[in-house]
Amino acid sequence: MAVWIQAQQLQGDALHQMQSLYGQHFPIEVRHYLSQWIEGQLWDVIDLENPQEEFKAKRLLDSLIQELQNKAEHQVGEDGFLLKIKLGHYASQLKSTYDRCPLELVRCIKHILYTEQRLVREATNVSMIRSIQAFEELRLMTQDTENELRKLQHNQEYFIIQYQESLRIQAQLTSLSTLPPADRQLREPALLSKRATVEAWLTREANTLQKYRLDLAEKHQKTLQLLRKQQTIILDDELIQWKRRQQLAGNGGPPEGGLDILQSWCEKLAETIWQNRQQIRRAEHLRQQLPIPGPIEELLNELNSTITDIISALVTSTFIIEKQPPQVLKTQTKFAATVRLLVGGKLNVHMNPPQVKATIISEQQAKALLKNENTRNDSSGEILNNNCVMEYHQTTGTLSAHFRNMSLKRIKRSDRRGAESVTEEKFTILFESQFSVGGNELVFQVKTLSLPVVVIVHGSQDNNATATVLWDNAFAEPGRVPFLVPDKVLWPQLCDAINMKYKAEVQSNRGLSEENLVFLAQKAFSISSNNPDDYRNMTMTWSQFNRVKLARRNFTFWQWFDGVMELTKKHLKPHWNDGAILGFVNKQQAQDMLMSKPNGTFLLRFSDSEIGGITIAWVAENPNKRMVWNLMPYTTKDFSIRSLADRISDLNHLLFLYPDRPKDEVFSKYYTPPLSKAVDGYVKPQIKQVVPDLSECEWLLSVSCGRSDSMLDTDGDFDLDDTMDVARHVEELLRRPVESQWGGPQS
Length: 747
Description:
Helix 5 (54-73) packs across helix 7 and helix 8 runs parallel beside helix 10. The protein is an alpha+beta fold. A six-stranded mixed β-sheet has the order 18-17-14-15-16-19. Helices cover 52% and strands 14% of the residues. Belongs to the transcription factor STAT family. Pfam families: SH2, STAT_alpha, STAT_bind, STAT_int, STAT_linker.
């Protein structure tokens, strides 16, 4: 979750501390309206003590001001007019404040982000403190009922002794009938008086014991109420949130975090529940030992039923999947998963280690399972190595089963619905086991379902399967019927999902900016508006996302976006992180941006027409007119031959990266070092990229742009396949032996 979203939820003193971070030096409105951009920048990589880093800080300042100005321009309406003026004022104010000392801006924002993160972290710890307090209260209540139970037991034992005394007196009275009348009259009054005294005491003490029993049952009821409340917080809040984080981690979200704290809470619950269960059973034993008419029998039955329900919920809910199987699952491929019982160690389940079985089932079978319909022996495929014994790890106190070598041998698919493809069909891995607690006193059958998996048989299906998984992970709701997801979502929701995925795949803190997301919205909805507010209430359907092809293209929105991620991840990561790639800019926007810049200015944008392509657009002066040129898109295949930085180095007419950065300043650190001297008379060949002379290109464009052998595509883009043929021919020539300039002929 973004820090700013969490910071807005702070309360009390923490909220006041957060508000005090802002002022004229950095208005809180700037933090609010540029929150995504601010958190997406690499502030920490700038060394505040190094004056040479000032140019980086200056770039960030300029970008911040540009973002503010863009945000201001997009405000409409009466409220928007006032905000437009305010944001424009803030842009001028920040430029005036930090233009001569941009490192101070970086220092200010780093301090703000660090403090916000600390306040959010401390607020999160408050819930932990409350849990600790609740457990302490439960401990005291359990200790109190233990003391009361011992007191009850002591009093009952004394009552039984007195009851035996009353029986002895009665026996003596009965035996008087055998005595002579004189002797009977002499002894009987004393025995009758003693019996009356004992019986009066027994009657009084029986009422007292009954009251003790009722008071104890009432205290147990209060303890169980607090136990259930605390268990609900842990299982329905904390554990569900952990599972949600685990699901979002599948989309590239932050790691779900360890289970150690959750396990310690669950173990405390288990220990307290078990102690109270044993107390209730002892109270029941005392009642059976000395039955006294009254409501206590029914109360104890209710308590026993309640405590059994509580421990059952705890055990079944804490049988979880610690490491999920891959959500895109290829047949005949090894995969792993780990299941864990959070209360296994505390309840001594490991004394008779249970076995866990894994089965793949369909979405329909998962629905039937949760409805408790009979699905025994139903499966949708065959998994090899699908049985594993749970192991107890003494050092960590964890009980888990590690499936290390599972493999899906075959899959049985369901009949597809409508336009649904095989990569939209969802399955799940069912893990199930059975074990006993308390020496077979309680036997539990536990089951847990993995996150949805999409089964593929070929790598070409991976792209579409990933789309299904992304949509499900992003928009699934807790407690849903398997595996229902909304058919359409708000565009900002989808933006959050694809931004999270993009940052994770590219392994970058630089996410998608608001301008990038506007570009994607234009592509998705075929709308030309540059105002992000125009898209905030728009919805995108699953079909628009990855069923229906984009206008005038033979691929879907997701297929295009996934191609961009793959290309950036494999070949462009450092350049994206450096901010050298604008990327999400169309051809017309590139032309508008470049025509106002000096000749030789260029930018890098992702291809609109090709999946996983990036092109260079640059402005140049020709004898007839000034033009913006676009190279045919590079793909992974091209970068496996020569890197982007080296290609830019090869093209001497490229001088400045948009807006005005000398290209060597940006790319020189990525250039391949010059070739070394020849070894054994051979010099290593080098491929270099060349493009035709621009005047020749213009002639080609005007005369033969429709010819299949032209170096330009129909949009005026250079076709690098032809230029690379020249380079490969040079490479062949260089492979031949070098003559005497390297010391004589070689063979």
